[in-house]
Design a protein that fits this description.
CATH topology of the largest domain: FAD/NAD(P)-binding domain
Radius of gyration: 23 Å
Strand order of the largest sheet: 3-2-1-4-15
Largest sheet: 5 strands, parallel
Number of domains: 3
CATH class of the largest domain: Alpha Beta
Length: about 475
């Protein structure tokens, strides 16, 4: 693989509209997202365990007792250094991560765990407010002369790019959409992640030397073999984006959409794009799938003015407390209520969808289902149905087919212990090789993959790898 030439050379990068220092000043005007007294009480509850099981719960290996103690002692400047030592993007995980660390907190045996996620978010926002976070590009002397292409700009791709850039490699991130961010941009609603937090971090990455190219759909408008000529290594970080479908009678009726189609259009509209959103206004909305994506659809439908919203889940309602077969420190499989659920709507558990029926002009009107336990039939009005049942794997008609990448039996990208695929010099990270997972796993995978790439390029690597 050689130098970047041809197609990639003529791609234009939009420069920041204003210097990073000016824009960071704007963000400093935002009130801090925590109560100092409450946070001090919470961090004081951390027991500084001899064996901190919160580490076991965190895929990143965050040094949680360390920065809890630093916050308690009002040593915020040191706390952000300790937090950034293991996590590239605490402002994302502090808002989006379901906090498996809290599920492993020792206090959780017989009490509420420490609010670790709130402390994490407070540390990063305090650091930005105080101006402690500034761009730190590698010096020219530290540059290795190696070029790496990262395909996909979600959390796994961004973490990989950030680590490799710190190691001195020249990194270009290729994104098929018109904006950088992947699911952070178009999958997560603005009420969960305001895009200014994403823009703030991207501005830093640009100033540190990472190059971003949008509109680069590898395998469609960019030959993947061109990348193998132009770069010394390639990282596939395109996510698990093929949605699980529901093959029942009436699926072809108008008004039945995948959740990501619905959320992406709404996010684009929020960004100011002139798009035709899938509107829930004055409609009876049914969301099939009880996970986070379904909750995102729920909150979005509320904001669009839905007449009613129901979320259906095939599985049983989880218990309010840990079941005996779900002991600490495993992830507590308990009933959870998100902020979107608090806003309204109905949740139905142990309900299986049988079919849809519609109007004479071919639009969905009713959902026909069966209660799993009683086998009793149930029906719901349904003017809009959103399928939020997860994903089955990465898209194959791009880099995977173009380069002949081997897959696992599960349909994910196969990779070795060094994160390399079946094609030498091509690596995989995030959901492409793991399957649908959490943002904290995506960042951990990205950091670990970066070590494998660095070792491949340089013979050895000192980058951390939280995922074995």
């Amino acid at each position: 693989m050689g130098k970047v030439t041809g197609f990639l050379e003529i791609q234009r990068q939009k420069p920041p509209s204003r210097p990073i220092a000016e824009r960071l000043h704007d963000w400093r005007e935002v009130p801090l997202p925590y109560d100092a007294a409450v946070l001090k009480d919470q961090t004081a509850r951390c027991m500084d365990c001899g064996i901190p099981f919160c580490h076991q719960g965190c895929p990143l290996g965050n040094l949680i007792p360390d920065w809890n103690d630093l916050v308690y002692r009002d040593r915020w400047r040191t706390a952000i250094d300790r937090l950034h030592a293991t996590n590239n993007f605490p402002e994302f995980t502090g808002r989006l991560c379901p906090a498996p660390c809290e599920g492993s907190c020792v206090l959780g045996i017989n009490d509420a765990p420490v609010t670790i996620k709130a402390a994490e978010n407070a540390i990063i926002e305090r650091a930005f407010t105080e101006g402690w976070i500034v761009a730190q590009p590698p010096s020219p002397a530290a540059r290795t002369g190696k070029r790496v292409a990262v395909v996909g700009s979600g959390p796994a791709g961004l973490a990989t790019a950030d680590q490799l850039n710190r190691a001195g490699h020249s990194v270009t991130v290729l994104e098929r959409a018109d904006r950088i961010g992947g699911l952070l941009r178009y999958g997560i609603p603005a009420f969960k992640l305001e895009k200014r937090w994403l823009e703030r971090r991207l501005a830093l990455l640009v100033e540190e030397g990472i190059v971003f190219r949008t509109g680069c759909h590898v395998g469609v408008n960019l030959d993947p073999k061109e990348l193998t000529r132009d770069f010394d290594a390639i990282v596939m970080a395109g996510g698990s984006t093929v949605p699980r479908d529901l093959r029942v009678p009436g699926r072809e009726l108008a008004g039945i959409h995948f959740a990501m189609e619905y959320l992406t259009l709404q996010n684009r509209a929020t960004e100011g794009d002139a798009v035709d959103v899938i509107s829930a206004r004055d409609k009876h909305v049914i969301i099939i799938g009880g996970g986070d994506t379904g909750a995102d659809c729920l909150g979005t439908a509320h904001r669009q003015g839905a007449r009613s919203v129901r979320q259906l889940e095939l599985l049983q309602r989880p218990p309010d407390r840990r079941a005996p077969q779900n002991p600490w420190p495993t992830w507590p499989n308990i009933f959870r209520v998100s902020s979107a659920h608090e806003e309204g709507g109905e949740r139905h558990f142990a309900v299986g969808t049988d079919r849809f029926s519609g109007t004479v002009d071919g639009r969905v009107a009713r959902l026909h289902a069966t209660e799993v336990d009683t086998r009793a039939p149930v029906e719901f009005d349904a003017d809009l149905v959103l399928l939020a049942m997860g994903f089955v794997g990465p898209e194959r008609n791009g880099m995977i087919d173009g380069l002949g990448i081997a897959l696992t039996e599960r349909g994910t990208v196969a990779r070795d212990r060094n994160w390399m695929t079946s094609v030498p010099g091509v690596f995989a990270t995030g959901d492409m090789q793991r399957g649908q997972s959490l943002i904290v796993w995506a960042i951990a995978d990205g950091r670990s993959c970066a070590r494998g790439v660095d070792a491949y390029l340089m013979g050895s690597s000192s980058l951390p790898a939280p995922v074995a």
